[in-house]
């Protein structure tokens, strides 16, 4: 945000009026930082209003959508309130289009635009922000789309600043099951490539229309990265692409996107590219590097850990597709069926 940008300071009364006193009907998103409300300002302009549970520096400094203003207030009954007012993303989240009630499938040009926009946003966090930021919760519901389907990375409630010169951090695991990189879920080792893994999973969802985690039956969950790799390994690359997609792209370009998604979601940390390498590959004629063989399926790896553990700890990952991972103090996850 430039130094010349002028922000509006809204009163808490303005915010309450815009959201009908934080009506549940106006909630359009939930995240680690708090809720997002649709708001209608006094001039009729529709905005998104983020109400923080705990104010986070990462939540504002890394914001990837235009900030209109803010509200800071303290009341006897509501305590300390901190809110920011942003442009409303007219097309909602990527999750809405892939798995929500939106009936029309996204065309290939739009999917390509979303993929590249998300990669660029992530590259900004890793290499443009000072200090660098690891998002920790890249998923379809955190990719917001404006009126032209430009993608914006959202929800920095779990984001971590990466100290300069540090290649990785050891930290308590947080995020969403299905999107969390194996080395982070298993050992608490967090790097920029942990976000790249999550991006790879989102890209596979975008290309296939399938969720990160699915289950043919309750005992055998399936991870999208394992599914896609099995197709690629058997030279069925284009079978990853969703059927019935309008305005499909060229065979070569679609194959390139599938291969980069599979490479990004590789279970081995250093088999993955950095996100700036991803952007270069997607923007140019640069080839996708060869994909190393996958030593074990992600689900099988998690199952082995589950069998070796007997009790859960104090942390947790949020659930996806009916499964939830509780994390022990030692950083090892136990996967269980989440209650409906």
Detail the topology: elements first, then pairings.
Layout: E1 8-9, H1 12-18, E2 27-31, E3 34-40, E4 46-52, H2 57-61, E5 67-75, E6 79-87, H3 94-99, H4 108-128, E7 132-134, E8 143-145, E9 151-153, E10 160-162, E11 169-170, H5 182-187, E12 189-190, H6 192-208, E13 213-215, E14 221-223, H7 224-233, H8 251-264, H9 275-283, H10 298-308, E15 315-320, E16 323-327, E17 333-337
Helix pairs in contact: 4-6, 4-9, 6-8, 7-8
Order of helices and strands: EHEEEHEEHHEEEEEHEHEEHHHHEEE
- How far do the termini sit from each other? 42 Å
CATH topology of the largest domain: Transferase(Phosphotransferase), domain 1
Total of domains: 2
CATH architecture of the largest domain: Orthogonal Bundle
Radius of gyration: 20 Å
Number of helices: 10
The poorly predicted ranges are: 55-64, 303-316, 321-340
- The number of distinct β-strands equals 17
Query: What would you call the shape?
Result: globular
What strand order characterises the main sheet? 1-5-6-4-3-2
CATH class value of the largest domain: Mainly Alpha
Give the percentage of residues in beta strands: 15-25%
Largest sheet: number of strands, sense, barrel closure = 6 strands, mixed
Helical content (DSSP H or I, runs of 4+): 25-40%
Structural class: alpha+beta
CATH homology superfamily of the largest domain: Transferase(Phosphotransferase) domain 1
Structure description:
The protein is α+β, with helices and mostly antiparallel strands. It has helices spanning 12-18, 57-61, 94-99, 108-128, 182-187, 192-208, 224-233, 251-264, 275-283, 298-308; strands at 8-9, 27-31, 34-40, 46-52, 67-75, 79-87, 132-134, 143-145, 151-153, 160-162, 169-170, 189-190, 213-215, 221-223, 315-320, 323-327, 333-337. The radius of gyration is 20 Å and the shape is globular. The model is unreliable at 55-64, 303-316 and 321-340 (pLDDT under 50). It is an enzyme of class 2 (transferase). Its EC number is 2.7.11.1. Its main location: membrane. Residues 22-291 form the Protein kinase domain.
